[in-house]
Amino acid sequence: MEVYPLIFKPILKDRIWGGTKLTTQLNKEKLTQTTGESWEISTVPGDVSIIANGIYKGLNLNELIEKFPDEVLGYKIHKQFGLDFPLLFKFLDAREDLSIQLHPNDELAKKRHNSFGKTEMWYVMQADDEARLIVGFKEKSSPEEYLKHLNDTTLVSILDQVPVKKGDVFFLETGTIHAIGAGIVIAEIQQTSDVTYRIYDFDRKDVNGNKRELHVDLALEAINYDVVAAKKEYNSVENRSNEAVKCPYFTTSVIPLNGKFDKVKNDDCFVVYMCTEGEFLVHYKHHNFEFKKGDTILLPSVLTEFQLIGQANLLEITIE
């Protein structure tokens, strides 16, 4: 395999709640005035990422993995997931509140949808004044209480609304009711899954006057009715991988890059970098590969010794 940092053509999604910040802040092409998501690395059926650079330009990620499974994924990941790429990476621009929703765990998702569950995390890249997220219940709840408030359109009153600022990290285990609030740009890391149970959408209608589908019955068994501690604290030491979230599905660290950072890793797993601020380059075997804010890059598992150089803030994601 020809080894180098891979970048992909963003898969842009129009959303009723989207805006224009993916273009103005992250240099993405403008799809519409309501572009809500940029899928950076995806193998969700129908939305498989296309390589945008180097000798493999034009291949999709699944095709590259089929050719070089151990080299791209790593032996450990290949053994665990076969030829499936296990993670999905996105940037989101919420001009308006997203729907209140949740995701099923692996067991339910497999039984109902033949899919992975959807454990995910958020890194807040930008937040307007008074922006907030909805994450879980204020106090321990129950199916009966939840349904009463849902039917009375007072669900928001029993949910925890958390003010946010740039740099905040939230870890969302499956079953956690959540919503990204208006005025927030987020980097999202999650299991490869597009299974979402939407339970309340503020009675919004689309351009055709239709309300979006809700999944109240499906959600009932999937909800975690306990209080959750979703916000995660982490260190911000320069030129170091500061662990922010570690779970069986992924480990995410924050790297405030200021100058040069030598990296040596094993070949068990790929690593992904999402650039949330600044510019940087990857120096590998006498070659420099340049990247900027809004770029998401995949380093194949066999790319084990390299340097990160520049002034940037990076999210580093791998599976341990």
From TrEMBL:
InterPro entries: Carb_Metab_Reg_Kinase/Isom (IPR051804), Man6P_isomerase_Firm_short (IPR014628), MPI_cupin_dom (IPR049071), PMI_typeI_cat (IPR046457), RmlC-like_jellyroll (IPR014710), RmlC_Cupin_sf (IPR011051). The keyword Chaperone does not apply. Coiled coil: none annotated. It holds the Pfam family MPI_cupin_dom. Keywords: Isomerase, Metal-binding, Zinc. Residues 243-315 form the Mannose-6-phosphate isomerase cupin domain. Residues 9-115 form the Phosphomannose isomerase type I catalytic domain. The keyword Disulfide bond does not apply. This is Phosphohexomutase. It comes from Flavobacterium hankyongi.
